[in-house]
TrEMBL record:
This is DEAD-box ATP-dependent RNA helicase 7. Its main location: cytoplasm. It catalyses: ATP + H2O = ADP + phosphate + H(+). Residues 30-207 form the Helicase ATP-binding domain. GO terms for molecular function: ATP binding; hydrolase activity; mRNA binding; RNA helicase activity. SMART domains: DEXDc (SM00487), HELICc (SM00490). It comes from Monosiga brevicollis (Choanoflagellate). GO terms for cellular component: cytoplasm; nucleolus. The lineage of its organism: Eukaryota, Choanoflagellata, Craspedida, Salpingoecidae, Monosiga.
Length: 591
């Protein structure tokens, strides 16, 4: 955070709200806006863009001073969504309570908005569509507009507001008799934005806090990725939330569709109280859910992108993205709901085996590197649950404890103090059973094994030779998803958990080759989108064994039985047919 002239500010409410210094984007825009310059701004999400224009605009309005019923607004701010418009409106109201401001957007009744306009305004904030409606009806006049703000202009462009924005800009100039001071924030610079800047802001000042940095995401966010088939996703998400956020943190889970959001909230193992946020939820209910989330009454939101932009909830600990979004900007803004205002946070993106390319695309365009991790293991989830349960005990009033002391003494006599307390904590946390899960694939009832060697492994055939030579025969056909380490010093693969003891008993470490249950995934070789429609997920674990049409690891190649035979020209015992995929071959994948 940077020092700034807040002590000279006309907005003492800034200090009462805890603001004593400004972030870089706020500090760099403050003086140019006060000097009347047009601003083209670009900053990472979570760096306080709203305050960067709200504070100086409020300063200017307070300095000018003006009262009177029915006065036309002097500042107009356009935002792409109801949620962002509402957030901007709240910022103006909190910092400049003596100014009259209102927020207008679709999905809300016209009458209260029209009444606020008739009473007189200093600032009006709204979505382009509803602002245009009020202008067309004649209820809103732009005769006194001196400041025009376009917040997240690229998002408004994506949502089809180009025509409405252009008309509002032209109406503002026509009705006010001159060009207002313009402030435009945009994460990207498509043609429409460049045209707007050229036509309406020829002498603008550019304020860019991202610069040449490749990383376009918030600075304090740790980006993690978990490979997981769709069938296992809900259970793994519940474990992820428990481990990284728990009962006392705040989590936002993003889904691609409203249907997915509803299903995840209703049919899930999530232990936290959940609220859903998407376009079909009435606006009043959405506002109530967001306020409950801010207040800590609700700890988990399941949302579509309606919540991804502009919502300033500074203490979100975890963001979960159920799959890679269709565009990189969505990833950036979703992940930006955590790590805000100088805090740190975690963003975990789930992906299916056939979405490797999509993940690499996000990495390349967002300028980040995902740390690939496995699904949380039972012991880790239980430890996190125990910490939550222990913390929950602090909230119990002493007067309540007296009613449980007799039962506690009886339980201690029966089971011993340590065992009794452990059982109570397990029950409180909901951790009543241990279910193993693969680190490599997230599949339940599978365990990931890790072979390490001192010499370089050139091909997977070396690992398969070890497996066939030293593993029990009944385990040969049960090996799944074998991958080599990036440094060629080892390999990981999945086996049914029920076979682990037998495999480990049959195996003997040598001075140069060792094997253990994998506790943390090593960095693995990059993998093409080689998994077919079956894979770990659709059609069962492995689809049609490892061969078949789209089954298991054989890409989309036809043919190929469980031994990888007949999957296309060039098929081998280890890699199946060559026609079905670019990486592990076509119709099959030999154990």
């Amino acid at each position: 955070m940077l020092s700034n002239p807040l002590r000279r500010s006309r907005t003492p409410h800034m200090l009462t709200k805890g603001y004593t210094k400004l972030f870089e984007i706020q500090s760099r825009t403050f003086t140019p806006i006060l000097e009347g310059k047009d601003i083209l701004g670009k900053a990472r999400t979570g760096e306080g863009k709203t305050l960067s224009f709200a504070l100086p605009i409020i300063e200017l309005l307070l300095k000018e001073g003006r009262n009177g019923r029915g006065r036309a607004p002097r500042a107009l701010c356009m935002a792409p969504t109801r949620e962002l418009a509402h957030q901007v409106g709240k910022e103006f109201a909190d910092i400049g309570p003596s100014l009259a401001s209102t927020c207008v957007y679709g999905g809300a009744p016209y009458m209260p908005q029209e009444s606020a306009i008739r009473r007189g305004l200093d600032v009006i904030i709204g979505t382009p569509g509803r602002l245009k409606d009020h202008l067309d009806k004649g209820t809103l006049k732009l005769t006194d507009i001196k400041y025009l703000i376009l917040d997240e202009a690229d998002r408004m462009l994506e949502q089809g507001f180009v025509e409405a924005i252009d008309e509002i800009q032209k109406m503002t100039i026509a009705q006010s008799g001159g060009k207002p001071q313009m402030i435009l924030f945009s994460a990207t610079m498509p043609d429409f934005i460049l045209s707007t800047v050229k036509n309406y802001m020829p002498n603008h000042v550019t304020v860019d806090t991202v610069g040449s940095s490749r990383n376009r995401t918030s600075k304090g966010v740790d980006h993690l990725a978990i490979k997981c088939p769709w069938t296992e996703r809900r259970a793994v998400i519940a474990d992820v939330v428990q481990m990284y956020s728990g009962a006392h943190g705040r989590t936002i889970i993003f889904t691609q569709t409203k249907k997915d959001a509803n299903e995840l909230a209703l049919e899930t193992d999530l232990r936290q109280e959940v609220q859903v946020l998407h376009g079909d939820i009435p606006q009043k209910q959405r506002e109530m859910s967001l306020q409950a989330f801010r207040d800590g009454k609700v700890r988990c939101l399941v949302a579509t992108d309606v919540a991804a932009r502009g919502l300033d909830i500074p203490e979100v600990d975890l963001v979960v993205q159920c799959e890679p979004p269709k565009d990189v900007e969505s990833y950036i803004h979703r992940s930006g709901r955590t790590g805000r205002a100088g805090r740190t946070g975690t963003c975990i993106c789930f992906y299916k085996p056939n979405q490797e390319d999509a993940m690499r695309y996000v990495e390349r365009r967002a300028g980040i590197s995902f740390r690939r991790i496995g699904a949380p293991q039972p012991e880790d989830v239980i430890k996190a649950s125990a910490r939550d349960a222990f913390r929950s005990l602090e909230a119990i009033n002493d007067s309540v404890l007296a009613h449980f002391k007799d039962a506690a003494r009886e339980l201690i006599e029966e089971r011993g103090a340590e065992a009794a307390l452990a059982a109570a904590l397990a029950h409180i946390s909901g951790a009543t059973e241990i279910k193993t899960r693969s680190l490599l694939s997230s599949m339940a009832d599978y365990t990931t094994l890790h072979i390490k060697v001192e010499t370089e492994i050139r091909t997977k055939g070396f690992v398969w030779t070890l497996i066939r030579k030293y593993f029990p025969e009944d385990a040969h056909n049960e090996i799944k998803g074998l991958r080599l380490q990036k440094d060629k010093q080892g390999s990981v693969f999945d086996v049914p958990t029920k076979m682990v003891d037998g495999i480990m008993a049959a195996w003997n470490d040598s001075p140069t080759v060792t094997m253990e249950v994998c506790k943390e995934l090593p960095e693995l070789e990059a993998q093409e989108n080689s998994y077919g429609g079956g894979g770990y997920g659709g059609g069962g674990y492995g689809g049609r064994s490892y061969g078949g049409r789209g089954g298991g690891y054989g890409g989309r190649g036809r043919g190929g039985n469980s031994y990888g035979r007949g999957g296309g020209r060039g098929g081998s015992r280890h890699n199946g047919g060559g026609g079905g995929g670019r990486y592990q071959g076509g119709g099959g994948f030999r154990r």
